[in-house]
Amino acid sequence: MILLVIGLLLPQQYQVQKSIKIHAPQTGITPLLSDFTKWTSWSPWQKVDPSIVFTIGEPSSGVGAHQFWQSSWGVGEMTITNISSTKINFNILFNEEHIIKGVISFSPLANGNQVTCSLDGEVTTSILGGYLALFSQYILANTVKLGLNNLKTTAQLQTATHSEKIDDDSNSPSKN
To answer: Is the pLDDT of residue 15 over 90?
Structure first.
């Protein structure tokens, strides 16, 4: 009975915010985030939940892009709602009751960008909502951190590969 009362008193809202420094231009980072067809190169979800299956909708990139998923944990959908020069906004609906609003923001640095992912969630299940909010916050905090690390690796490798290609092209003799 005490656990039930505690569960009713716990907040059903939660927040997650994680940042990372990425040594890559924003033009190399944004497409990895705003195009769901590129998420497989960095997204941690298939490692976290091997049962997950993604379906990418049309459009697959830009404002209005959306993806759906099914897994042993449930179903969900994500939609990109806004893209500007400093951020990408998105909404997530999980199991038709768990609502998340997210923002990925970019802050320029001397040699790259600070990328910050912020999630504001709410669990609308009345009795267990507080416990589910705590669980969701824990899982998402760890998964967002892993995702940002993967994003950093992917963006920096693409930047290094692109730079090497430009160097190779400028050093190769011209053909006449």
So the answer is: yes
Q: How far apart are CA 160 and CA 129, in angstroms?
A: 45
CA atoms 39, 81, 71, 129: torsion sign: positive
Write down the pLDDT at residue 135: 85
Q: Which amino acid is at 171?
A: N
pLDDT in tens, 18-41: 999 999 999 999 999 999 999 999
Measured between alpha carbons, how far is 162 from 27 in angstroms, rounded to an integer? 12
**pLDDT at res. 171:** 57
Beta strands per DSSP E along the chain: 13-22, 53-56, 66-71, 74-83, 87-94, 98-109, 112-123
Contact by Cβ (8 Å): 62, 34? yes
Q: What's the first-to-final CA gap in the chain, in angstroms? A: 85
What's the pTM value of the predicted model, to 2 decimals? 0.84
Mention every residue, 6+ apart, whose C-beta is less than 8 A from residue 19.
114, 115, 116, 117, 148
Amino acid identity, position 169 = D
